[in-house]
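Milestone 3.1: sequence recovery, worked example.
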């Protein structure tokens, strides 16, 4: 599971920029609406995916009032957000790098056209469902700034599946449904997570030269700029990325 950190850093930079543009709240409102629809319930207690998204939204400082108002409207049969659905696109970037794109859309034709355009423009190829997903494991991800014995012990007791030391900190991997439970357990013991998310961890990574790695990075950035796209995951070896990234 090594190699997640650099992509996580890039992702955090993007998240900060999105917040400035006011996109984070919109992103989570759409995700929450889609999760309520897919799970058949706007009650977090009865919908694990919805519960995870609400915790993720709170972690990203989405106002609780916004979340509560949306849940009440959805529970009351409000049509807002009822047409949103989660879709996943898979394919390859230059150099044979596998890419998974998670999106939330109310118009599949528009979204797939936009995603395909980016793939084609950047020398990639959009594949069928299942084309690359088998190369990844879905995991909860938590990063702490400290890597003390106490932090490792607390993570294990809370249910961590794997631990990795990284840049002086500690990366914690969990079952995706347990990531926010583990995070809260760590907070209760005095450890403040720097990052909490659900991600796709590549089973193996692809190493490229700097020039080809930069092509992949530009493709990822172009995909992330699409309004419907929520997350992009690749199996590019982070060591291939230029230092300035």
């Amino acid at each position: 599971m090594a190699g997640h950190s650099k992509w996580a850093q890039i992702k955090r930079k993007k998240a900060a920029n999105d917040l400035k543009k006011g996109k984070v709240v919109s992103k989570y409102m759409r995700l929450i609406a889609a999760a309520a629809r897919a799970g058949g319930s706007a009650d977090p207690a009865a919908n694990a995916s919805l519960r995870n998204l609400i915790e993720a939204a709170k972690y990203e400082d989405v106002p609780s009032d916004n979340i509560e108002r949306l849940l009440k409207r959805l529970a009351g049969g409000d049509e807002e957000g009822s047409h949103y659905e989660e879709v996943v696109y898979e394919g390859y970037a230059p150099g044979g790098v596998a890419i998974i794109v998670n999106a939330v859309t109310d118009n599949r034709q528009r979204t797939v056209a936009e995603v395909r355009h980016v793939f084609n423009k950047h020398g990639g190829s959009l594949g069928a469902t299942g084309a690359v997903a088998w190369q990844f494991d879905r995991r909860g991800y938590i990063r702490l700034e400290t890597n003390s014995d106490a932090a490792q012990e607390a993570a294990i007791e809370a249910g961590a599946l794997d631990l990795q030391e990284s840049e002086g900190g500690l990366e914690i991997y969990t079952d995706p449904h347990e990531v926010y439970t583990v995070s809260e357990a760590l907070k209760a013991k005095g450890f403040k997570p720097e990052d909490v998310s659900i991600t796709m961890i590549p089973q193996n990574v692809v190493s490229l030269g700097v020039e080809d790695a930069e092509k992949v990075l530009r493709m990822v950035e172009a995909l992330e700029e699409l309004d419907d796209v929520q997350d992009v995951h690749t199996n590019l070896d982070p060591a291939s990325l230029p230092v300035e990234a």
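The two ends are 20 Å apart (CA to CA). Residues 85-134+204-240 form a domain with the Alpha-Beta Plaits fold (CATH 3.30.70.980).
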